[in-house]
Write a structure and sequence with these properties.
It is a single chain. The protein is an alpha/beta fold. The strands form 3 sheets. A 7-stranded parallel beta sheet has the order 3-2-1-4-5-6-15, with helices on both faces. The chain has a 7-stranded mixed beta sheet with strand order 10-11-12-7-13-14-16. The termini are far apart. The chain is globular, with a radius of gyration of 19 Å. The longest helix has 17 residues, at 308-324. It is built from 15 helices and 16 strands. It has 2 domains: 2-133 and 309-360, Rossmann fold (3-Layer(aba) Sandwich), CATH 3.40.50; 144-306, Dihydrodipicolinate Reductase, domain 2, CATH 3.30.360. The chain is 41% helix and 27% strand.
Length: 361
Amino acid sequence: MKIMVLGGAGDIGSGVLESLCSMNIDTIVVGDIRYEAAKNLCESMKRVGCNCEVVKVNAIDVESLRGASKGIDVVVNTIGPFYKLGFPIAKNLVRLGLNFVDVCDDYDAIESILGLSIEAESTGVIGITCLGWTPGLSNILALHGSKMFKEVEAIDIYWVGSASDSKGLAVVMHLFHALIGKVPMYLGGTWTLVNAGSGIVEVEFPDPIGKLNLYYTGHPEPITLPRYVRIKDRVTVRGGLIPQWQNSFAKFLLRVLNINSDAKAERLVRLIHKVEDIFRIGGLKASSLRVDIFRDKDKVSYITIDRMRRLTGVPAALGALWIAKGKIEEPGIRPPEAVIKNTEEFLAEIEKSGIKILKVH
């Protein structure tokens, strides 16, 4: 069993690699265009008993990917931002006949990636898209909770991230992308567009996070969940940063600088990235996810708090392992709620990794 992680030298990619190592994969491959960083990471993993290899690869270049992926059973793509790179990399993986998992977290990339499903079916490729933290674990928890009810009224998803808990340019680019313009939600039984950063609600998380104001953010769950779970009214995603002042600061920058496109946002993000250590000062090294499932007056909630790289890396690694073991056999590209039907087993494996999931009625 040989699994390669594209972008493996990055923060999220290395989290996937560490998770694969704990799952006793025969060989894990660090695939990255930054060869020296990948080599150093691979050496450190060997020291803790992982059978690790390293390969330099440009995943956008199909011939580079072809050469790097020989003998690979499953690929995990963590290269972001996905609104720019998700589709071209997925297209190359399908073209090369490679089974894959990705951690796509951008709402506009998901339709294009799912659009490759017919081609994937014809070539026998199995692909799971959006299998990370949110989306990913959020989708699985939503599906799992919905099994308690004959019909689901609503699913509300909340995420909290911290600058102290993540690093890397792509994470910041995704954040600003999710806060620009109009983003899709499922409201009143239909897909609609809302203003990103609107829809403020106060949400309670366990300590050390506490109560936070969260806002509509652009994520794939409202697009995919209603296709596979019977939902009468709504699917929403709201998110925010800790400390709370960073939310106001981000919205202030977007408004004052008139940031209304990804091109403008990327110029701002690159400036922020150079001084992002300032935003980590005094922060909490933790991120969180809350999923509320409703039916009439009944409600069940799932809450988890951990490091972002683990909340993302463990589900992605486990999905790749399930493909490699033949637990997911149907070709095509689908979101996790469409293919991981045994949510009990999947979540049990998540908790076995050390990620605790609190269930609240």
